[in-house]
Each structure stands twice: as C-alpha cells, then as structure tokens.
Design a protein that fits this description.
79% of the residues lie in helices and 0% in strands. The protein is mainly alpha-helical. α2 (20-33) packs antiparallel against α9 (161-182) and α6 runs antiparallel to α7 (110-129). The longest helix is centred in the N-terminal third of the chain and has 25 residues, at 40-64.
Length: 286
C-alpha cells in the first residue's frame, strides 16, 4: 500500500495547508491563557482537538459538495469528482475525526466536553449553508472562531473577553477572505441556485462587504492587543503587517479582475496568519 501517496491525497483533500488559518488565533489564545506555560497534557489534547475538528470539517465539506464540485469546472479536478477518493471514505475520515474531537474535549475539562456538540453542529452545518443562505461566509467564520475561544477554555474552563475578541477577529477575517474566494464562482453559483454574498449583492458590493469585515477584524484584533498585557512591540509590528496584507488582498481582486482571487484569499491569508502567529507568540515569551 502506498501510504505516502495516500497521505498526500488525503492531505490535499482536506486542504491541510490551510490549517494555519485558525491555528495562529488558537495558539495565541492558548499561550495567553496559560501565561506562555501550558501544561503538556493541555497542549496535547487541545492540539488534537483542533486538528481533528479542522480535518473532520473539511472532509465532510468535500463529501457534501462532491456533486457540486463535479459540475464546477474550477473544482472538477478535486479528489472525489476525479475518483481518487470516495465519498464513503471521506465521510468515514470525518466521523473518526469528530469522535477524536469529542474524546479530546473530554480529556480537557467538562466545559469543553459540554460545548463540543455545538462545535460539531457548526462544523457539520456549514457545508449545507450555501444551499439556502448568503450568510454562509459568516457561518464559516463563526466555525473558525471556535478555535481561539476553545483554546482559552481548554486552559481556563471559563469564558473571557480577550478570546472572544480573538474569535471575532478570526470570524470576520475568515468571512472576508471567503467572500474574495467566492467571487471566482459568481457565475456558476448564480446559474445553479447557490447562495453567497457575491450572488446576493453583486460583485462590487460583495467586495465592499469583504473590506468592511476585514476592517472590523482589525478593530477586534486591536482591542485584543490593548487588553492583553503580553502583547507589545512585536505584536503591533505584526498588526501593521496584517493591515497591509489585507489592503493588498483588496487591491488584487476587483469586479473585472478576479483571476487572482485564489491567490489573494488563500495565499495572502496564509501569510497573514503566519505573521500573527510569529509576532504574537514571540511577544508572549519576550
């Protein structure tokens, strides 16, 4: 059996490289909650819960959207439409990941275990939202926001304002770049009765909404930095860089020029998240 090839196929299937989108927010939240000294057990189970949740959610999304992906010329080359991986295998992977999430939550504390069904509901429900609401981008954002809030709860077992601000930043930032990503499929979604902010409001207004979400994300991140005593010069340098990268994203995509939408929404966002991770984590320890 070609384990290396299988790992590569499944890694591509669940877009493992996109894990960084919420990882930076979750890691920063966990380290701030623990004062930079998380217990190994907390770090292990929180990390397993995060990876399981993210992998399971993306696997389920691929299985649920397999028929739509097969009809869309942009996504017809994905693993399930091409027959490299079956929907059944993908659903089995998702189920295993979700069971691992629940087990990991139980190993952390009762609050995490109690809230794990809510996280599962969001992760399972998101994949269907494009079929009935243009708010699908925000549902994705709220789902991603579970990462920093959950990381804080993993350490403390209590809600607080700072992780909620990180969650808000993660939510609005994700929703903003998901709108950019969705502009690629504007004509396809319109023709097939799918819902999105670009379809509901048109391309120009959708890009304005995306920019507004990113501005609000910056304000939430600003508030977090002001409230979190461990954030200093490096965080604010990273904050300035993040603002510049967001501005770049919105220069790359216009209603008449959408060929760089994937580059703007995914690649630039990966740099944004890595910058937050690098500067934020360094400020915790320096």
């Amino acid at each position: 059996m070609d384990f290396k090839g299988m790992a590569r196929r499944y890694g591509t299937l669940v877009m493992f490289g996109h894990t960084v989108f919420s990882l930076s927010f979750a890691a920063l939240s966990l380290l701030c909650a623990s004062g930079g000294r998380p217990r190994f057990a907390t770090l292990f189970w929180a990390g397993l819960a995060f990876l399981s949740a993210r992998t399971g959610a993306n696997a389920l999304n691929r299985a649920v959207d397999a028929q739509i992906d097969g009809r869309n010329p942009r996504t017809a080359g994905r693993q399930i439409p091409r027959g490299e991986v079956t929907s059944g295998e993908t659903l089995a992977l998702s189920a295993v990941c979700f069971l691992l999430l629940i087990f990991s939550a139980g190993m952390l504390n009762p609050v995490c275990l109690l809230l794990s069904p809510l996280a599962l509901l969001l992760m399972s429900g998101y994949s269907y939202t494009k079929r009935f609401t243009w708010l699908c981008h925000l549902v994705l954002g709220v789902t991603c926001a579970c990462a920093p809030v959950g990381a804080w709860l993993a350490v403390t077992g209590r809600f607080a304002l700072r992780p909620l601000l990180l969650g808000a930043a993660n939510c609005l930032w994700t929703a903003g770049f998901d709108i950019l990503y969705g502009t690629q499929d504007y004509e396809f979604d319109l023709a097939h009765g799918l819902y999105s902010i670009p379809v509901r409001f048109g391309l120009r207004r959708a890009l304005q909404i995306s920019a507004a979400f990113h501005l609000l994300a910056l304000l939430a991140l600003l508030a977090f930095g002001l409230l979190e005593a461990r954030m200093g010069l490096l965080f604010w340098m990273g904050f300035a860089g993040i603002a510049a990268l967001m501005a770049l994203q919105h220069r790359m995509v216009t209603p008449k020029r959408r060929d760089k939408a994937q580059l703007a929404s995914y690649n630039v966002s990966q740099l944004t998240s890595l910058l937050l991770l690098f500067c934020g984590v360094l400020d915790v320890y320096l």
